[in-house]
Design goal:
Blueprint (H helix, E strand, L loop, with lengths): L4 E2 L20 H14 L4 E3 L9 E5 L14 E23 L2 E19 L5 E7 H14 L10 H15 L9 E2 L7
Parallel strand pairs: 1-7
Antiparallel strand pairs: 2-3, 3-4, 4-5, 5-6
Amino acid sequence: MTLPIMAFGQPILRKIAEPITKDYPELKELIADMYETMYASNGVGLAAPQIGKSIRLIVIDTNPLADDYPDGKDYKQVFINATITELSGDDWVFNEGCLSVPELREDVIRKSKVHIEYYDQDFNFHSEEFDGVRARVIQHEYDHLQGILFVDRVSSLKKMLIKRRLTEISKGMVSPKYKMIFPHQKKR
């Protein structure tokens, strides 16, 4: 089932998400719905707060980026209760977008490597290091679990320049090709 995406301005996007246990109700269905929602929205990652659930759950599929970033080829993963333990490598500027902030893209500086501990969809523990586009997408989605959006990581000057656009997004003055819930709407 395709779920609506929470738009910029929704309070849930600013909360620190809560860990879950392996007996979380209908977890496999939720993961499937998140993938379906991500694909229907042309995303490469989706965090549970973006669909209105303040839990530590991320889905990623970097395959759509593989033409430009070969390390993204055939990479699809679920991250549950993830914790980034180290950021390293060079600073990397990348033009990011976000399903919760439609029709806006900005350059964001992130580290090129990330070490993360997480559980997969079967609650098997992993401790791994990623680099390249995988590290980039993981960091972006992990920020959602921490109540951080990519627009928080742009320069002060850029924040001033996009402030009006962010206000328009929060008021629903955008036309994404996927379902969204804006702050003035009740959750469906």
